[in-house]
């Protein structure tokens, strides 16, 4: 710093010494005139350098940096180094950005960067193909103006990052996309779109297969079980072994019949592309009906209780709710030994409607609970079979719960009993 001041003021000091000499030789006026002229020259020189600097700054490129000497040369060469370094950093960043862009462009998935207002900041070619974006005009457009399907708009606005959305893009009717939002940075979001058409096709084939198999099985089964019943009624058939065989056959065909019925229900629920047919369901009446069916099934072997206010109502599909709650109550009866108690009840928990079935039955060990809703998963195969189970009941309940955006809460203690609760979202409550 000191060095700078010394060098910057050196011409003035030297001038002052010369002026003093001139004062001694001639007069003070000569010395002052000399100083004045010197200061004017110094100012003019600096003004010229400043002018050159100003001109150069309008388009600061290292190769056009002005030439100068002394202090100014030093200033210019520092600026030169700074601009050069800045340019190098800029180029490095641009290269890195280009690498990133090339890598994201090569991804097999669509990527869109959205800002906090849902405006598109960037997208890769796959996203462009999925959503028909226009590379020139769609930057900074609100994505909900460009992709207008209601389910998409709801998904973006809800910002529920935990689950993906399946949808068919408007201009690719035969394509199925899985869309996922991922938050990052400050209020930014990454939208990833994946083409799952092939996967969906295989899924649809599997669903069709189950539906077809079930239909195919149904007819022969009905015929066989009809004949078995006829044979059982024949009076001259009194050999014990034949009767036992017939009874077994009847039992087995009945089981197969139940299985086919459950498979059909499942495939209908899975195939149902249309949204849930909703109505205001009188839950007091529905639970009353299910309770009566439960009493018949139990045959007075258990103490069944029903707790529901007279005006309980829910927005949902009556038939599906009947099937789900009926399954839960059926299970409670089948997995509770004689003399046990079962409570079917309705309540509101934090404004959420809850239907629960509580039993004092055999209970379930904790390691089984997460898997109960898988198809054909049973804790105890023989008990399930003995009681006429198909292993599909809870899979059906889970599906129906999902279609109603409800949660199936299971709590259980081995040997003490279980509680299966359907917890519905607040929006389904009707008051
Ligand atoms: P299943 O037809 O075998 O009953 P589900 O899908 O209805 O099939 O149930 C799956 C398994 O969950 C059952 O096999 C049983 O082990 C267990 N389970 C279901 N409900 C109860 C309950 N209330 N108490 C004890 N175990 C149960």
Describe what this molecule looks like in 3D.
This protein has 4 domains: 2-89, no CATH class; 107-195, PAS domain (Beta-Lactamase, 2-Layer Sandwich), CATH 3.30.450.20; 206-271, Signal transduction histidine kinase, dimerisation/phosphotransfer (DHp) domain (Helix Hairpins, Orthogonal Bundle), CATH 1.10.287; 279-430, 2-Layer Sandwich (Heat Shock Protein 90). Helix content is 53%, strand content 17%. The protein contains 12 helices and 12 strands. It has a 5-stranded antiparallel β-sheet with strand order 2-1-5-4-3. Helix 1 runs antiparallel to helix 2. The two termini are 80 Å apart.
Q: Topology of this protein?
A:
Blueprint: H1 2-25, H2 28-57, H3 70-106, E1 110-114, E2 120-123, H4 125-131, H5 143-146, H6 150-158, E3 165-167, E4 177-184, E5 188-195, H7 197-233, H8 240-271, E6 279-282, H9 283-298, E7 303-307, E8 313-316, H10 318-334, E9 341-349, E10 352-359, H11 381-386, H12 393-403, E11 407-413, E12 417-423
Parallel strand pairs: 7-9
Antiparallel strand pairs: 1-2, 1-5, 3-4, 4-5, 6-8, 9-10, 10-12, 11-12
The structure holds adenosine-5'-diphosphate (ADP).
The site of adenosine-5'-diphosphate (ADP) has 22 residues, from helix 10 and helix 12.
In short, what is this structure?
With 431 residues, the protein is an alpha+beta fold. 53% of the residues lie in helices and 17% in strands.
Number of domains: 4
Roughly how many Å is the radius of gyration?
41 Å
DSSP summary, beta strand count: 12
What is the distance, rounded to the nearest whole angstrom, between the alpha carbons of the first and last residues? 80 Å
Mean model confidence by pLDDT: 89
**Which ligands accompany this protein?**
adenosine-5'-diphosphate
Order of adjacent strands in the largest pleated sheet: 2-1-5-4-3
CATH class categorisation of the largest domain:
Alpha Beta
């Amino acid at each position: 710093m000191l060095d700078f001041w010394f060098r910057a003021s050196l011409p003035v000091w030297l001038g002052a010494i010369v002026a003093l000499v001139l004062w001694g030789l001639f007069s003070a006026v000569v010395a002052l005139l000399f100083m004045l002229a010197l200061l004017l020259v110094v100012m003019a020189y600096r003004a010229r350098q400043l002018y050159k600097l100003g001109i150069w700054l309008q388009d600061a490129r290292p190769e056009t940096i002005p030439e100068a000497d002394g202090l100014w040369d030093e200033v210019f060469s520092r600026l030169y180094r700074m601009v050069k370094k800045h340019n190098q950093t800029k180029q490095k960043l641009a290269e890195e950005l280009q690498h990133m862009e090339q890598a994201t462009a090569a991804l097999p998935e669509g990527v869109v960067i959205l800002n906090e207002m849902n405006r598109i900041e960037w997208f890769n070619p796959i996203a462009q193909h999925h959503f028909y974006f226009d590379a020139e005009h769609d930057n900074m457009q609100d994505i909900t103006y460009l992709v207008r399907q209601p389910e998409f708009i709801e998904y973006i606005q809800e910002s529920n990052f935990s689950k993906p959305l399946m949808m068919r893009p408007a201009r690719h009717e035969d394509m199925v996309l899985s869309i996922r939002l991922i938050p990052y940075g400050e209020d930014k979001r990454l939208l990833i779109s994946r083409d799952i058409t092939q996967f969906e096709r295989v899924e649809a084939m599997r669903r069709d297969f189950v539906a077809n198999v079930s239909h195919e099985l149904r007819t022969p089964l009905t015929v066989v079980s009809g004949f078995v019943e006829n044979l059982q009624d024949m009076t001259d058939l009194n050999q014990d072994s034949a009767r036992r065989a017939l009874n077994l056959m009847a039992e087995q065909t009945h089981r197969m019949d139940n299985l086919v019925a459950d498979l059909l229900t499942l495939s209908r629920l899975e195939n149902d592309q249309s949204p849930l047919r909703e109505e205001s369901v009188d839950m007091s009446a529905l639970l009353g009906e299910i309770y009566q069916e439960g009493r018949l099934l139990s045959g007075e072997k258990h103490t069944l209780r029903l707790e529901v206010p007279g005006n309980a109502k829910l927005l949902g599909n009556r038939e599906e709710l009947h099937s789900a709650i009926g399954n839960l109550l059926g299970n409670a009866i089948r997995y509770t030994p004689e003399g046990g108690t079962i409570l079917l009840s309705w309540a509101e928990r934090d404004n959420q409607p809850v239907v629960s079935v509580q039993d004092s039955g055999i209970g379930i060990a904790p390691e089984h609970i997460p898997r109960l809703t898988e198809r054909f998963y049973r804790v105890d195969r023989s008990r399930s079979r003995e009681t006429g189970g198909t292993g599909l009941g809870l899979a059906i309940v889970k599906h129906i719960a999902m279609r109603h955006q409800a949660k199936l809460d299971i709590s259980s203690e081995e040997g003490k009993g279980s509680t299966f609760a359907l917890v519905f979202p607040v929006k389904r409550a009707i008051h």
